[in-house]
DNA sequence: TTGAAAATATTGAATATTCAACAATTGAAG
DNA sequence: CTTCAATTGTTGAATATTCAATATTTTCAA
């Protein structure tokens, strides 16, 4: 009467980690053509609305915690992809903006990312993809 | 005629990262009751079949790369949760085994993890959960 | 208005991860 | 058999992340 404990591969937490790892790896591979980590793509994408975004807001949006974001932004400022402006309405805040160079890079990265999405659509299917997205959104919602 | 680029929140890669982060955070919170990181739960769970698993096999199973696993196993050996045995059939390999202490801990961790799964089932729904799992498995399959 | 608490971002030290090189063993071709 | 390439795991240095502490500014209650 051995107890056949639930295998790890049946845990939602594990399946999510596994799928995330794989998809992220693929995306990483594409973006490496431009020598850019996934997080920087996210940052540029969020900033490419042209508006200023505070560090806190950005950290939430790109799934990084504050100190990690600060250091990554330091690098991106060195690369003149983004720049800091003190928020005039709340001087505790820093508003981040994308530079022209950042916009150019962002476009290239977007097309690489879109490439990947299309590749997934092909091998995984249109129906499954949109259904999966829907379920993920709803899971995220239900976790707040 | 501004181009409304796909928002990042619509990319599968982003949704997966977000969902994974959130679910992982919740699991982490539970496991912290025993002071154990998620990766160690995975390791113990895989080893709790009682069989020896090589480092390479284990690294794949628990989603860690080799050097990271080696160092985490070093810690777990210090804590006498697992132990190394040289594979007699292939002396390049090391077989990892779970200790009695590891088994005891593993059971506690499992019940914490099951707690979480039940919590998700409640707030997210039985139907959605199993459907999400099915889709994730199929996505992972299609990525090989 | 003042002073304490909260919010925001950064820093430096501690910790963890990754990359490249290495050592040991096995496999396999000649 | 012997040698060379491939496999497996570990190590140390370089890099990245995290935690706790800090500085600054704002908020708000007294």
Topology of this structure?
Two copies of one chain form a homodimer.
Chain A: H1 12-31, H2 38-47, E1 53-54, H3 55-62, H4 66-78, E2 82-86, E3 94-98, H5 100-124, H6 126-142
Helix pairs in contact in A: 1-5, 5-6
The structure holds a DNA duplex (30 and 30 nucleotides).
Describe this structure in words.
The structure is a homodimer of 144-residue chains. The first copy, chain A, is globular. Chain A has one domain (36-142): Winged helix-like DNA-binding domain superfamily/Winged helix DNA-binding domain (Arc Repressor Mutant, subunit A, Orthogonal Bundle). In chain A, strand 2 (82-86) and strand 3 (94-98) form a beta hairpin. The model of chain A has no long low-confidence stretch (mean pLDDT 95). The first copy, chain A, has a 3-stranded antiparallel sheet. The first copy, chain A, has helices at residues 12-31, 38-47, 55-62, 66-78, 100-124, 126-142, and strands spanning 53-54, 82-86, 94-98. In chain A, helix 1 crosses helix 5 and helix 5 (100-124) crosses helix 6 (126-142). Chain A contains 6 helices and 3 strands. With 144 residues, chain A is mainly alpha-helical. Helices cover 65% and strands 8% of the residues of chain A. Chain B binds a DNA duplex (30 and 30 nucleotides) through residues 54-56, 64-72, 74, 90-94. Chains A, B: Residues 9-141 form the HTH marR-type domain. Chains A, B: Pfam families: MarR. Chains A, B: Keywords: DNA-binding, Transcription, Transcription regulation.
